[in-house]
Amino acid sequence: MSTEPSALSAPSSSSAGFGSTTLFDTLLPGDAGAAARRGAGSVFDVCHAGVVLRALLVVEAAVGLVTLFVAADFEAWSLRFASASAVAVPALLIWLSAACLLKRPLGVLVPWLRWAVSMAMGALAALLPAQLVQSLGLDMLGAHPLLGPLAAGAAGAAAIYGWLQLRARALLPADTTARLAELQSRIRPHFLFNTLNTALALVRVDPARAEGVLEDLAELFRVALTDIGESVSLAEEVELARRYLAIEQVRFGARLKIVWELDDDAGQARVPPLLLQPLVENAVRHGVEPAAEGGTVRIRTRVKMGRAQVVIANTVPAAPSRPGSGMALKNVRERLHLMHDMAAQFEARAVDGAFRVQLVVPL
Predict the structure, then answer these.
(1) Of 158, 253, 265, 361, which residue is least crowded by CB atoms under 10 Å?
(2) pLDDT at position 258, please?
(3) Residue 190 pLDDT
């Protein structure tokens, strides 16, 4: 717990006029282009349980409908559906696994070649389970027990790839919008103003401390103004949150109490960049700043059931602050699900006199 006092703990009253403005109104000109460049690779981003489940449901529904047209009764339909599923489901899983493993090299191919490779992968993925089913003597669709599955595998792969293309095009604007909104909400003008004032006040009385404040501020700007990729480690995000809270600690002094409970193993998890900073900023802004006696911000990471869990909690003042727009929480939720789909969890609620945000991401 950090409780270092400071004579500079009072926030500047001039910040009131910026209370409804969330962080830095500067748009990064190259960011939308970077998101667009990631679009081709994201077509094959199928390494999520949600994508696999949706694809399985669609394929099984298609198999069920097709076999209805060639079955005379329910018993015959059941047999044909079982034998067709014994080929279609393993073939789909093989194709999705290959697409997941090869998503980067596949993503750089020209469009027509991606189609061709996807269909070839589908045909080959259907060949192995078709031969296995045939060797077991199960009834197969059509008079050509191998040619049929090969053609069906290629056609199915083309359909799945077409769906993935539509999905990637739908997600790209959302990804770009979320990233731009996140970059717009990096450093609120009043936070920048107060930090610079704090550093100026410290220059004469404590130059080393003033230098530390400016170094932390420079690091925040460096990350905010740099396209650092699709993901970073949770440990890197924690370090950035430390720098932000170190600046706020100088401003608020003893009014701000910080509790860290960190599990090093959880730091290996991958998360979208600049994910924790807006959450700890919200905790300070709504849990500490409005309270005359200050408050406590608690950050905890741990590994639970093979996943990384992050909890950020802050005390709630007796007189609550003016409600915000909720953009930061919505932004974090959207970016987590864009990256991890159904494997990510996000929860924000008031519990026992504290406001608690919990994130769960796969390791």
Answers:
(1) 265
(2) 92
(3) 58
Q: What pLDDT does 7 receive?
A: 38
Question: What would you report as the CA-atom Rg of the chain, rounded to the nearest whole angstrom?
Answer: 27
Tokens of 339: 């990256």
**How many angstroms from the chain centroid is the CA of residue 230?**
9
In this structure, what token pair is assigned to residue 253?
Answer: 């002094």
Burial class (CB in 10 A: 0-12, 13-18, 19+), 138: middle
Question: Residue range 344-352: average pLDDT?
Answer: 88
Task: Find the range with the poorest average confidence among 111-115, 160-164, 165-169.
Answer: 165-169
As a whole number of angstroms, the distance between CA 146 and CA 148 comes to 5
Report in angstroms the alpha-carbon separations of 83 from 70, 93, 127: 13, 16, 14
The domain segmentation of the chain, as residue ranges, is 13-24+185-362, 37-177
One-letter amino acid of 356: R
Contacts of 207 (CB under 8 A, 6+ apart): none
CATH number of 13-24+185-362: 3.30.565.10
Q: Which two tokens stand for residue 263?
A: 């599990």
Q: Is 329 a residue whose pLDDT tops 50? A: yes
CA-wise closest residue to 126 among 162, 88, 164:
88
Q: 3-class DSSP state for residue 259?
A: strand
Sign of CA dihedral 250, 251, 255, 258: negative
59 vs 171, higher pLDDT? 59
| pLDDT higher than 50, residue 188 | yes
Determine how β-strand 256-261 pairs with β-strand 295-304.
Answer: parallel
